Amino acid sequence: MAELIKLNLLQFFIVIIAIVVTTPAVGYNGDDYYFNETDTFNQLILDIYIDETGKALVTGYVDDINGLSFLETAEYLYENDTKQLYALTNALTWKYADKWVLNFSTCDYYTDYHTVFYLPEDVKLLVSHSKGLEHFVTTSNESLVIDVQGYNIESPATTIEYQQPLRETDDEGGDSGFSLSPGYLLLIIALSVLTLALFTVIVKQKRRGDQHAEEQQVRVKEGKIEPTREMVRVMETLTERERAIVNALLKHNGEMTQADLRYETGIPKSSLTGTLRSLERRKIIIKKEWGRTNVIELSEWFLSEGERK
Question: Is 229-307 a CATH 1.10.3720.10 domain?
Answer without folding.
Answer: no
